[in-house]
């Protein structure tokens, strides 16, 4: 049973990443209206009577999303029933189901009723939360199987300021992701034809396409600096925590790669594979930061956990 649930969670994580990238492909190829304004079928037909590239890009995204959704729900329910006394597992299982369903409904609303660019940009963010939830659920299930309990029980040895730093980085990453999605939905990807500078502009005007693009670049630049700080702080203060050092190192590597691919998008004039690579790196980076948050536990929980001092197991996300 344990092996089956873990296997399904792996499929769910891989599938959630796939549908996130397929959603990005829909947007980048302008296939949002490939199935008209009907949902879940194309132009009201289960088997479309005519075929276009845009139709099948959009329709395949819907079909794969439905299949992955079933896998995620099955894996999450199984994990909940198997570890019903573990708050972390139940928390991640609930989030996995909630976000996979919510992003589907959000996509359906965009098709049937249409939405503003600001609202559409939220869709990628919720897809990101969906992927991170399923991936972290998979990580926790493997940790519990390997050691009998999650490695994140070591979170009591991390200072509260460091916890706030990691959780703050996760929140800020989400903000940066939103600005990137807003760039795409407003057609501002080439608002600045140069990189890393934007002509003679240093301060964005916030209204033009160039200003929208430059704002995202500034936010992304700060994200890179935060990732460097996190890597340095973890190495200096917690050299014995291999899990935190691994997470911080991968966060830095992925940040560098996504900055470079972001610049490559502009320099290659929106090359599709480069753009999809950038979206993949964003998903992985956000998940790496969320992994760190999972390992240290919430900052509002006292880092000197009495249950740990007494030798008992502790669930890092238990209020």
Automatic annotation (TrEMBL):
It catalyses: Fe(II)-heme o + 2 A + H2O = Fe(II)-heme a + 2 AH2. Belongs to the COX15/CtaA family. Type 1 subfamily. Pathway: Porphyrin-containing compound metabolism; heme A biosynthesis; heme A from heme O: step 1/1. It is found in: Cell membrane; Membrane. Interacts with CtaB. InterPro entries: COX15/CtaA_fam, COX15/CtaA_HemeA_synthase, HemeA_Synthase_type1. Its EC number is 1.17.99.9. It comes from Kroppenstedtia guangzhouensis. This is Heme A synthase. Coiled coil: none annotated. It comes from the Bacteria. The gene is ctaA. It holds the Pfam family COX15-CtaA.
């Amino acid at each position: 049973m344990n092996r089956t649930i873990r296997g399904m969670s792996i499929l769910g994580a891989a599938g959630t990443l796939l549908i996130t990238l397929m959603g990005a492909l829909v947007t980048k190829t302008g296939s949002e209206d490939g199935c008209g304004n009907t949902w879940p079928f194309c132009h009201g037909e289960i088997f479309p009577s005519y075929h276009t590239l845009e139709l099948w890009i959009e329709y395949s995204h819907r079909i794969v999303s439905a299949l992955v959704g079933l896998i995620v729900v099955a894996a999450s329910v199984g994990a909940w029933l198997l570890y019903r006394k573990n708050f972390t597992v139940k928390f991640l299982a609930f989030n996995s189901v909630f976000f996979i369903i919510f992003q589907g409904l959000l996509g359906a609303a965009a098709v049937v009723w249409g939405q503003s660019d600001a609202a559409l940009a939220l869709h990628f963010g919720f897809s990101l939360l969906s992927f991170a939830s399923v991936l972290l659920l998979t990580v926790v299930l493997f940790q519990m199987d390997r050691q009998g309990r999650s490695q994140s029980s070591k979170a009591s040895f991390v200072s509260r300021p460091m916890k706030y730093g990691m959780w703050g980085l996760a929140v800020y990453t989400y903000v940066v992701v939103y600005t990137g999605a807003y760039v795409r939905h407003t057609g501002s990807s080439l608002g600045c034809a140069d990189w890393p500078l934007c002509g003679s502009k240093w301060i964005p005007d916030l209204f033009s396409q160039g200003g929208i693009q430059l704002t995202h670049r500034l936010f992304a630049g700060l994200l890179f600096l935060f990732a460097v700080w996190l890597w340095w702080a973890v190495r200096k203060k917690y050299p014995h925590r291999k899990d935190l050092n691994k997470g911080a190192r991968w966060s830095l590597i992925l940040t560098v790669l996504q900055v470079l691919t972001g610049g490559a998008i502009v320099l290659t004039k929106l090359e599709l594979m480069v753009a999809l690579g950038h979206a993949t790196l964003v998903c992985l980076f956000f998940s790496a930061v969320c992994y760190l948050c999972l390992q240290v536990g919430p900052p509002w929980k006292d880092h000197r956990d009495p249950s740990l001092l007494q030798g008992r197991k502790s669930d890092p996300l238990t209020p």
